[in-house]
Amino acid sequence: MEFPFDVDALLPERITVLDQHLRPPARRPGTTTPARVDLQQQIMTIVDELGKASAKAQHLPAPITSASRMQSNRHVMYILKDTSARPAGKGAIVGFLKVGYKKLFVLDDREAHNEVEPLCILDFYIHESLQRHGHGRELFQHMLQKERVEPHQLAIDRPSQKLLKFLNKHYNLETTVPQVNNFVIFEGFFAHQHRPPATSLRATRHSRAAALDPMPAAPARKLPPKRAEGEIKPYSSSDREFLKVAVEPPWPLNRAPRRATPPAHPPPRSSSLGNSPERGPLRPFVPEQELLRSLRLCPPHPTARLLLATDPGGSPAQRRRTSSLPRSDDSRY
Ligand SMILES: CC(=O)SCCNC(=O)CCNC(=O)[C@H](O)C(C)(C)COP(=O)(O)OP(=O)(O)OC[C@H]1O[C@@H](n2cnc3c(N)ncnc32)[C@H](O)[C@@H]1OP(=O)(O)O
Predict the structure, then answer these.
(1) Do residue 177 and residue 304 come from a single domain?
(2) Distance from the CA of 277 to the center of ligand 1, in angstroms?
(3) Single GO molecular-function term (predicted)?
(4) What's the complex ipTM?
């Protein structure tokens, strides 16, 4: 992918890492240095063009990667340049990989909900003319080392078939843990994960049920902490969510037909997973209330039940609230 400016001078390293500041890397000694603002503009152009090319390759209605989205999120972009060819002496870009930490509610193999904050693969693109030459693997490998994560610890935001094959081939990732959101996680995701100390912000911020849940928490964040967070909404974290706005018809046409009774169990494996990795049109919008209702119908964890039964200090009101279904004014979500 070529640009009308000198990519080779702009990005001295084979792989450049960009964060939300989109700072131009330090240039090689002896290279003439244009104004800093021009360099940043060039970086922004590269990010925008890569985002557009990736969206086109994935048949998305709009790019999910752009300079402005980079600036407003704590994502990290790994950009690979072509060091062999220097068409017109200006260099070229091979592709990019975008990652970021996200709060997710994921199901484990017992179909219990877990709040985690894994590193997510958000966008990945290698130029069409250079795919299947090992460039994707080079980028991915570099990212794994820099972020110090193992492939099975990652969550993937709506992987394409090509990416699923890529992950299978290079990292033996095959067996997925079925989810009801757009993220795909693989077997081993819940193994050996970092468990924060009981006094950590994460533990105290959680709901009582989450604090009692013995499932391990997400891998430790390597990125700086985000701004103060508000209420956590299940399934609200996909980086591709905003694309729904582009494809969703206006209200009331966007309302899914209401069921008489909410589903007692999450969708079966094939349905959940069959939907997630597919590209093309996004899945119909699931009304949040319906989703919450099905969440609230999940049976309490056995540990929680035991504690509630044996907790003599809890007031009757407290016991009433925790032993029955959450009330409509329950503001946890
Ligand atoms: C969360 C997300 O970002 S989902 C979106 C992922 N991006 C895309 O689908 C955009 C189009 N595809 C691409 O840009 C690239 O193919 C990537 C990024 C998926 C992989 O990068 P590449 O440089 O092609 O990967 P690399 O050469 O290291 O590995 C090749 C392997 O990837 C998989 N793969 C790559 N292209 C294809 C393809 N067209 N068909 C099937 N499998 C493919 C295969 O396993 C392949 O191994 P094989 O050639 O022996 O079958």
Answers:
(1) no
(2) 14
(3) tubulin N-acetyltransferase activity
(4) 0.99
Q: What is the CA(137)–ligand 1 centre distance, in A?
A: 9
> Cβ(10) to ligand 1 under 6 A?
no
CA of 59 to the centre of ligand 1 (A): 15
Domain of 148, CATH number, reads 3.40.630.30
Counting Cβ atoms within 10 Å, is residue 257 exposed (0-12), middle (13-18) or buried (19+)? Answer: exposed
Q: Is residue 118 part of a domain?
A: yes
On the 0-12 / 13-18 / 19+ scale of CB atoms within 10 A, 165 is exposed
Average pLDDT over residues 153-173: 97
Instruction: For 22-58, give one letter per residue: b (16+ CB within 10 A) or e.
Output: bebeeeeeeeeebeeeebebbbbebbbbbbbbbbebb
What's CA 238's distance to the chain center, in Å?
6
How many structural domains does the chain have? 2
pLDDT number for residue 70: 97
77 ligand 1 Cβ < 6 A: no
List of E strands, 19-91: 76-82
211 with 103, same domain?
yes
Quick check: CB of 124 below 6 Å from ligand 1? yes
Tell me which residue range forms the domain holding 80.
7-255+266-297
